[in-house]
């Protein structure tokens, strides 16, 4: 029987994380003597990995200095490590939907542009350790929307792209799915507006985790093995 797999983004999809990200960013900026950022600003800066988050958070006058960015990234990682699970929480209904999908035979995975060490730790804190077969953050592979890491997860799960669905909340996620030739579900409860998801090529839009589950079971039905 073919393996059917669902690959999830983390930030804004599985969990609300932005306040802890903002705290890490602002503590970094404060330590370096720069002006702090609002939550709205930080929301604009996320999705392309920690290095780009740090670069965009810094004043424009220093955004071209890789040396300054190296220093700021190291400080950000120190600060985020102190606060990454203070206000981070799973979206209502998500745990129930994921548990149901797993019981019905889907293999579940997580792929994020957040640093791998934080992705693995956050998932371990928020979810049952047996829920996800693969959890992968940004490490040595190119960040999303490059499809390399997503296709690697498909291979690790023993699934073909045609047997996978990618669930995310950003244009980066929708482009990742398209680049990997995987069907995509954009979620409306995350950090980007539905119009952005549609423009980026979302195949489906889910308003709730329950609706997300229904869409998955409709377009990629499976049975308990």
Description of the structure:
The chain is of the alpha/beta class and 225 residues long. The chain has 2 domains: 5-16 and 88-219, HAD superfamily/HAD-like (Rossmann fold, 3-Layer(aba) Sandwich); 18-83. Helices cover 47% and strands 16% of the residues. The protein has helices spanning 18-32, 39-45, 50-57, 66-83, 94-103, 116-126, 148-157, 171-180, 194-199, 209-219; strands spanning 5-8, 15-16, 89-90, 107-115, 134-138, 164-168, 183-187, 204-206. The strands form 2 sheets. Strands 5-4-1-6-7-8 form a 6-stranded parallel sheet, with helices on both faces. It has a two-stranded antiparallel ribbon with strand order 2-3. Strand 4 (107-115), helix 6 (116-126) and strand 5 (134-138) form a beta-alpha-beta unit. Helix 1 crosses helix 4 (66-83), helix 3 (50-57) crosses helix 4 and helix 5 runs parallel beside helix 10.
CATH 4th-level superfamily of the largest domain: HAD superfamily/HAD-like
The separation of the N and C termini measures: 8 Å
Give the mean pLDDT. Answer: 96
Q: Which residues sit in consecutive blocks of at least 5 with pLDDT less than 50?
A: none
* Fraction of residues in H or I helices: 40-55%
Q: Which structural category do the helix and sheet elements fall into?
A: alpha/beta
């Amino acid at each position: 029987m073919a393996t059917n797999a669902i690959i999830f983004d983390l930030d804004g999809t599985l969990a609300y994380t932005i306040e802890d990200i903002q705290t890490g960013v602002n503590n970094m900026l404060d330590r370096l003597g720069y002006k702090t950022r609002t939550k709205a600003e930080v929301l604009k800066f996320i999705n392309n990995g920690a290095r780009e988050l740090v670069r965009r958070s810094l004043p424009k006058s220093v955004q071209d200095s890789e040396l300054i960015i190296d220093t700021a990234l190291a400080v950000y990682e120190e600060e985020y490590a102190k606060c990454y699970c203070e206000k981070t929480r799973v979206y209502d209904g998500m745990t129930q939907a994921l548990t149901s999908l797993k019981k019905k035979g889907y293999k579940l995975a997580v792929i994020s542009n957040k640093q791998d060490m934080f992705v693995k730790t956050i998932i371990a804190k928020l979810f049952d350790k047996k829920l996800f077969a693969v959890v992968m953050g940004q490490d040595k592979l190119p960040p999303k929307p490059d499809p390399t890491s997503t296709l690697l997860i498909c291979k690790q799960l023993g699934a073909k792209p045609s047997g996978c669905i990618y669930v995310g909340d950003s244009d980066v996620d929708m482009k990742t799915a398209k680049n990997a030739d995987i069907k995509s579900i954009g979620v409306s409860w995350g950090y980007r507006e539905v119009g952005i998801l549609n423009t980026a090529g979302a195949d489906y839009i889910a308003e709730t985790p329950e609706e997300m589950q229904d869409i998955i079971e409709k377009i990629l039905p499976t049975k308990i093995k």
